[in-house]
Amino acid sequence: xxxxxxxxxxxxxxxxxDLARLRLxxxxxxxxxxxxxxxLGYVSQLTEVDVSHVSLLGDAELKNRLRTxxxxxxxxxxxxxxxxxxxxxxxxxxxxxxx
Amino acid sequence: xxLTSLTIPELRQKLQSGxxxxxxxxxxxxxxxxxxxxxxxxxxxxxxxxxRAAADTANTALPLGGVPIAIKDVINVEGDPCTCASKIxxxxxxxxxxxxxxxxxxxxxxxxxRTNMDEFAMGSSTENSSWGITRNPWDxxxxxxxSSGGSAAAVGGxxxxxxxxxxxxxxxxxxxxxxxxxxLKPTYGRISRYGMVAFASxxxxxxxxxxxxxxxxxxxxxxxxxxxxxxxxxDRPVPKYTASLGQGVKGLKLGVPKEYFIEGIDSExxxxxxxxxxxxxxxGAEIVEVSLPHTQYAVAVYYIIAxxxxxxxxxxxxxVRYGKRAQNPKDxxxxxxxxxxxxxxxxxxxxxxxxxxxxxSGYYDxxxxxxQKVRHMIAEDFRLAFxxxxxxxxxxxxxxxxxxxxxxxxPLQMYLAxxxxxxxxxxxxxxxxxxxxxxxxxxxxGLQIIGPKWGEETMLRxxxxxxxxTPWHKEKPPx
Lengths: 99, 479
Hints:
The structure holds 2 protein chains of 2 kinds. Chain A contains 3 helices and 2 strands. By secondary structure, chain A is mainly alpha-helical. Chain A has helices at residues 13-19, 26-43, 77-81; strands at 87-88, 91-92. Chain A has a domain at 8-46: Histone, subunit A (Orthogonal Bundle), CATH 1.10.20. In chain A, 30% of the residues lie in helices and 4% in strands. The N and C termini of chain A lie far apart (48 Å). By secondary structure, chain B is of the alpha/beta class. Chain B folds into 2 domains: 3-255 and 394-474, Amidase signature (AS) domain (Amidase signature (AS) enzymes, Alpha-Beta Complex), CATH 3.90.1300.10; 296-374, no CATH class. In chain B, 37% of the residues lie in helices and 13% in strands. Chain B has helices at 8-17, 22-40, 48-56, 99-106, 149-156, 173-179, 213-223, 267-282, 298-313, 332-343, 346-359, 364-385, 411-415, 422-427, 456-469, and strands spanning 43-45, 68-72, 110-115, 162-167, 182-185, 205-210, 253-257, 286-290, 391-395, 430-438, 444-451. In chain B, strands 1-3-2-4-6-5-10-11-9-7-8 form an 11-stranded mixed β-sheet, sandwiched between helices. The longest helix of chain B is centred in the C-terminal third of the chain and has 22 residues, at 364-385. Chain B starts with 7 loop residues before the first helix and ends in a 10-residue tail after the last helix. Chains A and B meet through helix 1 and helix 2 of A and helix 9, helix 10, helix 11, helix 12 and helix 13 of B.
């Protein structure tokens, strides 16, 4: 029950957007800041629930399903690349990452 | 009666007797789409000639031989666009068939058109589509519901005989209720999701839109089953769901959860659902009151878990392998940031931000772990309720279809549209919405029947009994 619920002002939308690799405009940041504060205010009602007896060790019905690691027919290179914005020599091309 | 108002069994009877050819079905359906879709805008993409060619070679001896089925734009059909109503997938062509599509083809179905939706299935009104708003066939000023609003409007507007949709928090059942169709969300794991674009993987399930319960049962027995390509699909025998219909409800106990009749529910919706409960009494069912004490927390739990999962699932849309890429990126981070900024709409961005936030360091326990624990308690509520009854009866949506634009500025109000459907996804159980009347201004009302895990047979039997005793599913939309 002791989990802290941060106050709505503490959401740094710019920082979170950066984590999500999402560039937002100043207008979007301002709008989302307010809207997300409303939503977080709403979800803070979950702090009322006593969850101390609940363990999340998983569903007994679930079992691992293993298979042998064999090569199966799959998408051809050509089809896998068919939707690529940029490609060359059977590879996806992206801007340089390492100088 | 117009051909487009027929049901699948009626179509099949005419196909098999030779009274009708599959091509004529496509011709008439395409003519209906041409006549009404400029108003409804249920379809994003339709290649009628491709459907005609498939119809010409369809084997009418198969269970869906020659029957056209529309597909929500979130499921891959080889060679068709699959945009999820997002600009980020503009121009994308599906390189393979989803497993449900393979199964439909094997059953002889003709794939017919791609239906509109909220972008990446995030929404309850289809107003979040990047390609325009779909309208409700019962009132063009109103939303069809969402996120599978295109599938619901197409079936409800008789411009599709049946359609596939997906349901993460009510995205099949809520629009089905608002457009007067039968909308089925099966048990989590019943149907393979291979080839469906993921939104929230612990909640997403493929399901159906039809005019009747019998057609829902027919489609379910065709598209269900384990798939080695989706390890969340469960290896359990697929019953012959159509055989479970027609047995009535005598001897069954039907539960009415008191938490589903709350302040804020539309009075005409409540009246129609209460009348449906009375009808079940007349049909011989025993009605019992049950309690699902954690119901009020379902929406809050959902918006933590669904956004967390979506923030991870949508990381794949980065401009590298498919879809849109921002022009002239100066480096890789600039490419990611601008591709996603230009490609995603407002609601998708909002959910990615919320999901990233609740998973971020320092907040994970307070939000995500707590939500998972409350989710477990919600599932327990249902498990205990099903010790006292065979199925539950509730409203599907607290209100009939609302006006276009009415809730777009207030995300939280929009989220509350799914208040009666979300808990079913959180618990991984099954639910179906069937027509149960109309408001005084002729807007459809839906009755939700909820079954336990793998309880589809009883649930459909309960749905079918009411449908046979009432006229609602036979009403034709004004369009």
